[in-house]
Design goal:
The structure holds two protein chains of two kinds. Chain A is mainly beta. Helix content of chain A is about 0%, strand content about 70%. Chain A has no helices and eight strands. Chain B starts with a helix and ends in a 5-residue tail after the last strand.
Chain lengths: ~90, ~400
């Protein structure tokens, strides 16, 4: 198992986002701020599921990191948004 | 020369008001953003939900100069504010200044006073006025709109998108674990996920993933997505179309007696629709009932005990917006009908019942300064009346 970091930045006060790693680790973040979660995950090709809303014109930035290395990132500005973000976890 | 100076005092006041607005930013700096957790971003960047008309209740402190344009009656210099506004003016503690959301009564209760000047001698103070106003309903302040209290439904609809996405993700994992597929194929599938996320478009998924999705689950997903968007629009509309309903009492003290007492109630309801374009330039419904009783102080022999009942009903439309970061109404027009009933104390040749058409054009000159110019027309007698007011909102939030 490898430790990765999920970093969610919500710019506006009305943003809300669900992030699902494997149907077991589902996180919900809302309100403005930078939220960080540490997740343990098996190595290999992975993908994280994203669904959220941001009514104001602020953005929601999702970054997946392992230590200092960015594995994947996605930025959303839509009112209601979704996505699947693939990334590779190496030992 | 003296007459010129006397007439000019009102313009000096206007100038002072305009200059003072530029100092207002500094005064408002102490407002706590932490307490205003809801729609600060929305208010700054999106659509204005409030018209100038909404300022029938001063947000904090308001300064106004009331003048009649056409007919000769007295001029007034008003200063009024919410109880919360008065508290912040005189308080030295941060708590009183920042607890905006908690002070519902203080925000909804307005106290004010004005100096009434004699129209014939504008240096002479003729009397004073005191006013009390309370908002029975006050839902038009976006800063008190607790967004997340009203968005559980949106969150649930957004959450409902997850099973469909999880299914695609599981299919993706299977593709990536398939040892019969080439690295090139896997890379293509991976890229299609990035494209899908960027474009929010199911058709951009690679055929290897698309072939595993059945049509009914796509339809269900799209229905959930549309419902979430619609639910958001509905929530925003609720805020934009909120109401304000006030009751008020105000009285003039002239010649050592309370010469005029007015009881009034006013109501505003937003009429904006679902479409965003319409919300940019919102419509408001306006209604007001005014019961006025006055003792004519010019008649020393006998008070006329005059009673006037006035009803106003109309619609207000924002016509132009400010170009500043905070989108506010810059120009709007209120078209209304006015019915006056004077059961007693009528002047000679005055009718018991009159019906008027009225229009108030409000122009915002600076973020906190606006000029409502009211023109009334009596269709029966063909008379025009005009009223000019200068209003200055002090200490508004987010300015």
């Amino acid at each position: 198992m490898e430790k990765i970091q999920l970093i969610v930045e919500i710019e506006g006060g009305t943003g809300s986002v669900f992030i699902d790693f494997d149907s077991k680790n589902t996180f919900h973040f809302k309100g403005s701020g930078v939220f960080v979660k540490e997740v343990e995950i098996k190595e290999g090709e992975k993908a994280v599921v994203i669904a959220g809303s941001e009514p104001s014109d602020g953005f929601v930035l999702i970054t997946i990191k392992k230590q200092q290395q960015t594995l994947a990132t996605a930025k959303f500005t839509q009112t209601v948004f979704y996505g699947i973000l693939p990334f590779t976890v190496k030992p | 020369m003296k007459t010129y100076i006397l007439r000019g005092w009102k313009y000096i006041i206007i100038l002072v008001v305009l200059l003072s607005t530029f100092t207002n930013k500094a005064l408002a700096q102490y407002d706590s953003k932490e307490t205003l957790y809801t729609f600060e971003k929305y208010a700054k960047t999106n659509k204005p939900n409030k018209s100038i008309l909404t300022e029938i209740l001063s947000e904090k402190l308001q300064f106004a100069f009331d003048n009649k344009l056409v007919n000769s009656t007295d001029n007034k210099l008003e200063f009024k504010g919410s109880l919360h506004g008065w508290k912040t003016l005189f308080s030295h503690t941060d708590k009183a200044k920042t607890a905006y959301l908690d002070n519902v009564f203080s925000r909804n209760f307005e106290m004010g006073g004005s100096i009434i000047f004699d129209n014939n001698n504008q240096q002479k103070i003729k009397g004073i006025n005191a006013s009390l106003k309370y908002a029975l309903i006050n839902n038009r302040d976006p800063k008190t709109f607790k967004y997340f209290d009203k968005t559980q439904k949106i969150d649930n609809l957004v959450k409902n998108l997850l099973p469909f996405l999880n299914q695609i993700r599981n299919d993706y994992q299977n593709v990536m674990d398939d040892k019969n597929l080439s690295i090139i194929d896997k890379e293509r599938v991976k890229n299609s996920l990035n494209k899908f996320t960027k474009q929010q478009d199911i058709s951009s998924l690679d055929p290897l993933l698309l072939e595993k999705i059945n049509k009914s689950s796509i339809q269900a997903f799209e229905a959930n997505f549309a419902a979430a968007t619609k639910s958001y629009d509905s929530t925003i509309n609720k805020m934009n179309n909120a109401s304000i309903w006030t009751i008020a009492l105000n009285s003039n003290y002239v010649d050592k007696k309370w010469s005029e007492i007015t009881l009034q109630t006013e109501f505003i309801k937003g009429l904006g629709g679902i479409e965003r374009e319409r919300e940019d330039y919102p419509w408001d419904l306006y209604g007001g009932v005014f019961f006025k009783n006055l003792q004519d102080t010019t008649n020393l022999e006998k008070s006329i005990n005059r009673t006037v009942l006035t009803g106003k009903f109309g619609v207000n439309k924002v016509l132009a917006l400010t170009k500043s970061d905070i989108k506010s109404s810059a120009l709007e027009v209120l078209l209304n009908v006015e019915y006056n009933y004077i059961p007693r104390g009528r002047y000679s040749n005055e009718e018991e019942k009159t019906f008027m058409l009225a229009s108030t054009i409000s122009i915002r000159l600076a973020p906190n300064v606006y000029f409502p110019v009211e023109i009334k027309y009596d269709p029966k007698n063909g008379n025009f009346f005009g009223f000019l007011k200068v209003k200055w909102d002090m200490l508004r939030f987010n300015q």
